[in-house]
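On clarity, I found the account of how folds are encoded harder to follow than it need be. For illustration, here is how one protein appears when written out as sequence plus structure tokens.
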Amino acid sequence: MAIIYNLPGSPKLKLDGDTLANIYLGNITKWNDPKIVALNPGVDLPDLAIVPCIAPTAAARVSFFTDYLSAVNPAWADSVGKGSAVKWPAGIGLAAKGSEGVAGQVKQLPGGIGYAELAYADQK
């Protein structure tokens, strides 16, 4: 699995688990948020809305992603939890079908972020 995103100039970013959890919880909403800036010194991050994309259907990649976020972020563990069928935070995330759908949405949406199987991430 890979984290994919769509930003002008395609910068290579570092995003830790706590930051990802806070993006998907709706606590971090802009790419130039101080937490993302601190993880990426020297990268010019835009004042652009983050558009989370999800594949909410039960699948191994959903379980892997939510298990990881639960392990690194107590708020995620308490409110969303882990497994292949979780209740995503209300109003957060555009749903797509599978890795291919998430990768396609991220590619089309400036500011988009998602998780997808590596093969789809490389293609898009």
